[in-house]
């Protein structure tokens, strides 16, 4: 048994839209440096759960807290939650197409939630080292001087992940990172996420079961706004109720 409090804790969260329960008593705990995969059929509540964590949607009831209960996410706005160190990667990459790869990262570093605002652009040695280290991690070192517009879809996804890492989030939420990627890019993305999860927590919403298997992490299956099953993928995918919701509709 461990007494270490969870990094993220959702306790009996419900979200009701016009009488419809998008989340229904959802409880979830994510530890520091844990990577968790969230699966579930369309309409299961995955997006709504991410919206609650990032402050985009307020729960109708229940608790959502961060850093062992230090912060009540239900009382903070989106900007404050981002400041706490919760980053979110949407499915479509939003990079600055006309800027180079390294300039995209520089812009993201300037927006670092911990950075001291400076009036003039002067790249310090420390900043240059951070750009280099990010380029290395996101596998774009050889593409640093190219315009983001020239990157493949997969490379753009990595660049956006790099831009989020520039903010040093404690928790990174990622929505279907492997969608539209080649097999090689998908495998590289799994490696990248595993590396990221060595130093922070990652929550991945994913439909691609091959990718989830490759991640090799604990899986939570949502259905009708609640947790249907949780555990290793083999166990969850053998669960009769999980098979029913995936096949029986
Ligand atoms: P998932 O991401 O797992 O596909 P969602 O969280 O997007 O599921 O949606 C859960 C349910 O809540 C769906 O039935 C959806 O139609 C409904 N829903 C989501 N957002 C809203 C909203 N803003 N207003 C009304 N219903 C919504």
Automatic annotation (TrEMBL):
GO terms for molecular function: ATP binding; ATP hydrolysis activity. InterPro entries: ABC_AA/LPS_Transport, ABC_transporter-like_ATP-bd, ABC_transptr_urea_ATP-bd_UrtD, BCA_ABC_TP_C, P-loop_NTPase. SUPFAM superfamilies: P-loop containing nucleoside triphosphate hydrolases (SSF52540). Keywords: ATP-binding, Nucleotide-binding, Transport. PROSITE patterns: ABC_TRANSPORTER_2. One of its GO terms (cellular component) is plasma membrane. Residues 8-249 form the ABC transporter domain. CDD domains: ABC_Mj1267_LivG_branched. The keyword Transport applies. This is Urea ABC transporter ATP-binding protein UrtD. The gene is urtD.
